[in-house]
């Protein structure tokens, strides 16, 4: 019995998607709930799994094709299969390997995306260990090979490949012309996520009247609190006490006092939100994503830390759901994890405010007429000047500073 394999229904915020990777070949035995194909949208990668045991009968949308929600991707033949049996593609591959072990034979078993990655990186597919059925090389196998190969070895391979393609005898000079090894170019298309990020950043700069105000905060009080209670906190909540939970709580308390920073602009209307959904920017190999802590004002420090860690793992594995990435009334971005000392973060539309955290540095500070060495962090608040005036922005940032420098206020909500 044949059944249709369709793409998931996309939410209103996602117009279309791209077929990223087919993980199964036509005729290959597949177990129920086994991954068939990845669909990449401008927010996340969606997985389409097998509806039952059977075989992939036909592929109707190839890798790179742009599709809409619930688009027909292929046909699936339902029935009992032996997962140990070889598919027609594998049988053909085995037969070819008996005759010849050249690269062309091996490439027949590779998906277009895998062949493209191998060609772009000048790799030898025989050196890559495949983890797919029958040893088939998957996209993630190529990525793993690239990450495990020493940079110097990869550079040598690229140089050798470039040299072999361009070195020629120059009869007029009576010698050999070598290529300029430092001027090699590689052109690759943007992922949908990267393209969407670029589009939103440009949109924010064109539509919002962005302005950034700065302040600095003494991190010693919460550093001492972490030192005193880190063991008890981890024992109680199962996670370490980080800085982000303090800033999330400080932001929610400040937003309660300055509702314009928690609002958004919709045309000529101002939308004030009675809830506090805090987006936490996370950097991944595919680009920046912003999972949202829903109702952050109702969460304790332990719950905030646990959810941030969970989101971080999901982001790296590409497992964040659309619901986890949707919404948000305010965003926090921590460039300090990468060593940033100062920056001007860009708004995440339609939000009207984003807080930038930075590196902690010990600096000499004047305290009560004395010079003390304190761990200081620069804070940056970028805001939409169409809605928020300078006075409100400065007072909002000072409120966050006061909560961080006197964390007891967070617990007392004063």
What does this entry look like structurally?
- 34% of the residues lie in helices and 25% in strands.
- It has helices at residues 88-99, 103-107, 112-120, 139-148, 151-166, 192-207, 220-237, 244-257, 301-317, 322-325, 390-405, 408-412, and strands at residues 2-6, 17-22, 29-30, 35-40, 45-49, 54-59, 66-67, 72-78, 168-170, 175-177, 210-218, 264-266, 269-271, 278-280, 282-284, 287-289, 292-293, 330-334, 353-357, 360-367, 370-384.
- Helix 8 packs across helix 9 and helix 8 crosses helix 11.
- The model is unreliable at 86-106 and 161-173 (pLDDT under 50).
Structural class: alpha+beta
Rg value: 27 Å
* Average pLDDT, all residues: 83
Poorly predicted spans: 86-106, 161-173
Count of distinct strands: 21
Fraction in helix:
25-40%
Keywords:
414 residues, alpha+beta, single chain, 25% strand
Task: List the topology elements.
Elements: E1 2-6, E2 17-22, E3 29-30, E4 35-40, E5 45-49, E6 54-59, E7 66-67, E8 72-78, H1 88-99, H2 103-107, H3 112-120, H4 139-148, H5 151-166, E9 168-170, E10 175-177, H6 192-207, E11 210-218, H7 220-237, H8 244-257, E12 264-266, E13 269-271, E14 278-280, E15 282-284, E16 287-289, E17 292-293, H9 301-317, H10 322-325, E18 330-334, E19 353-357, E20 360-367, E21 370-384, H11 390-405, H12 408-412
Parallel strand pairs: 14-18, 18-19
Antiparallel strand pairs: 1-8, 2-4, 2-7, 3-6, 4-5, 6-8, 9-10, 11-21, 12-13, 14-17, 15-16, 19-21, 20-21
Helix pairs in contact: 8-9, 8-11
């Amino acid at each position: 019995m044949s059944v249709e394999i369709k793409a998931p229904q996309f939410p209103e915020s996602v117009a279309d998607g791209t077929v990223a990777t087919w993980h199964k070949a036509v005729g290959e035995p597949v177990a129920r709930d086994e991954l068939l194909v990845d669909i990449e949208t401008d927010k996340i990668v969606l997985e389409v799994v097998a509806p039952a045991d059977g075989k992939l009968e036909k592929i109707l949308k190839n890798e790179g094709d742009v599709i809409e929600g619930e688009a027909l991707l292929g046909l699936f033949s339902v029935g009992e299969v032996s997962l140990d049996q070889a598919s027609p593609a594998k049988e053909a591959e085995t037969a070819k390997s008996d005759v010849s072990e050249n690269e062309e034979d091996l490439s027949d078993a590779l998906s277009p995306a895998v062949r493209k990655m191998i060609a772009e990186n000048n790799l030898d597919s025989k050196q890559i260990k495949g983890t797919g059925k029958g040893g088939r090389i998957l996209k993630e196998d190529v990525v793993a090979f690239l990450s495990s190969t020493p940079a110097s070895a990869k550079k040598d391979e690229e140089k050798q490949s470039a040299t072999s393609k361009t070195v020629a005898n120059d009869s007029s000079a009576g010698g050999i012309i070598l290529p300029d090894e430092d001027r090699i170019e590689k052109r690759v298309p943007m992922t949908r996520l990267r393209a969407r990020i670029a589009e939103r950043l440009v949109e924010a700069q064109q539509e919002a009247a962005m302005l950034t105000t700065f302040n600095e905060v003494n991190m010693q009080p919460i550093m001492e609190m972490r030192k005193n209670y880190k063991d008890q906190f981890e024992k109680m909540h199962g996670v370490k006490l980080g800085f982000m939970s303090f800033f999330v709580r400080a932001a929610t308390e400040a937003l309660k006092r300055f509702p314009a920073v928690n609002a958004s602009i919709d045309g000529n209307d101002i939308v004030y939100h009675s809830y506090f959904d805090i987006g936490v920017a996370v950097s991944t190999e595919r680009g920046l994503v912003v999972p949202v802590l829903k109702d952050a004002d109702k969460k304790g420090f332990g719950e905030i830390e646990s959810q941030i860690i969970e989101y971080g793992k999901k982001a790296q594995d590409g497992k964040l759901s659309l619901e986890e990435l949707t919404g948000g009334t305010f965003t926090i971005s921590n460039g300090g994890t990468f060593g940033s000392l100062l920056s001007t973060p860009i708004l995440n539309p339609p939000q009207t405010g984003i807080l930038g955290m930075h590196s902690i540095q010990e600096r000499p500070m004047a305290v009560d007429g004395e010079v003390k060495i304190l761990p200081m962090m620069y804070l940056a608040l970028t805001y939409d000047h169409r809605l928020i005036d300078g006075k409100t922005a400065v007072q909002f940032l000072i409120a966050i500073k006061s909560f961080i420098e006197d964390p007891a206020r967070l617990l007392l909500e004063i």
